[in-house]
Amino acid sequence: MKKIIWILCFLFLVWCSQGDEFIPQENISETTQMKKIVALWDSLTAWYWVDIEQNYPSKLQNKLQENGYNYEIINAWISGDTSDGLVSRASLYLDQKPEIAILIIGWNDGLRGLSTTNLEENILEIIDMYEEAWVKVVLWGMDIPMNLWLTYRNDFRQVYKDVAEVRDKVEFFEFFLDWVAGKSDLNLPDMIHPNPAWYDIIVGNLYKFLEKNKIITK
Question: Residue range 86-107: average pLDDT?
Answer without folding.
Answer: 95
